[in-house]
Amino acid sequence: MDAGRDNQTQSRPALLGMDLGALRQVASEVGLRSFAAGQMASWLFKRGCVDFAQMTDLPKDARAILARDYEIGRDEPLVESLSTDGTAKYLFRGAPGRDIESVVIPDADRATLCVSSQAGCRMNCAFCMTGRGGFQGQLTAAQIINQVLSVPQSASLTNIVFMGMGEPADNVAEVIRAIDILTAPWGMAWSPRRITVSTIGKTDGLKALLEQTQAHIAISVHNPFGGQRGQIMPVEKAYPLEEVMNLLRSYDFRHQRRLSLEYTLFAGRNDSPAHARALADIARSVDARVNLIRFHRIPGFEGHAPAQKSMEAFRDALNAAGVVATIRASRGEDIMAACGMLAGDKNNKQA
């Protein structure tokens, strides 16, 4: 962890969240030529630098000034929790009063990191633990990138999904900055096809993601009928699903970028044939696939997952209607790492 960091905040700007232009400005401030920005970027994003002393191709006096005025931005996990299925959950410093959680999901030759974009969430979806804890603050691009670089499995990651704590479209500038760092040749040089951003459809932020990144997009639907959706997702009032779909229809998802609809099934609430037909109509209209998610019980929400046969029948109805639909495997429930269960409560640690 960077020297000088207290328990909750960074006292100096973190280089880890800066693009090449910002690093050039830093280089100028410490008396270096502009090409030093590329050297710093290489140390930060490709070589795993955690201390300015490691930047040995920079002059010693410049490194001293950097250490005085800036931080790298690296911060190791506070807690690790391991599931019996191989899933790993990590607690990181977030905002005052709320730490954040990241999840690594191994699957054969794949390793997916689920990153957080906010400390808490303002969307207040009824079935999500993160929203139940309220909103404590935005994460910086540095804090997002730190999750990628500081999990023990960092070198073996194959995919990144913005499906952790928070609503990415509600912190869109920092999320886009993080995606730029992840995909830029001077950064981590990831293909955008390895990154998925999940959003409830906050339309201004969604539009920025569509226009400024090439990451895949996943829309949290959970009910195709606006009135019913609004009962569990208050965001429906401000950003109706119909408006979200109208926005998506103006973009081409047939090449490179993939669009998917996330749909958590609740027994007797959104799993009827009528729901399947309406969801299929929406999916076809935007050329999207559907990911069906098993609900995991959380305190304070009356609802439970359908039986496996019912989930399979719902999936089969979508497939029969011409929609590619799959049931997402449930992972990490025993460590509270499954969809909708992230809380960032460091008073409820599992070592």
Tell me what you see in this structure.
The chain is 32% helix and 18% strand. The N terminus and C terminus are likely disordered. It has 2 domains: 55 residues, DNA polymerase, domain 1 (Orthogonal Bundle); 257 residues, TIM Barrel (Alpha-Beta Barrel), CATH 3.20.20. α11 crosses α12. The strands form 2 sheets. It has a 10-stranded mixed β-sheet with strand order 1-2-3-4-7-8-9-10-11-12, covered by helices on one side. It has 351 residues and is of the alpha/beta class.
Q: Rg from C-alpha positions? A: 21 Å
Strand order of the largest sheet: 1-2-3-4-7-8-9-10-11-12
Order of SSEs = HHHEEEEEHEHEHEHEHHHEHEHE
What CATH architecture of the largest domain would you give? Alpha-Beta Barrel
Number of helices: 12
Topology:
Layout (H helix, E strand, L loop, with lengths): L19 H10 L6 H11 L13 H10 L9 E4 L5 E8 L2 E10 L2 E5 L3 E3 L8 H4 L2 E4 L2 H10 L8 E4 L9 H12 L11 E5 L3 H10 L3 E5 L5 H7 L2 H4 L2 H8 L10 E7 L7 H13 L3 E6 L13 H13 L4 E3 L24
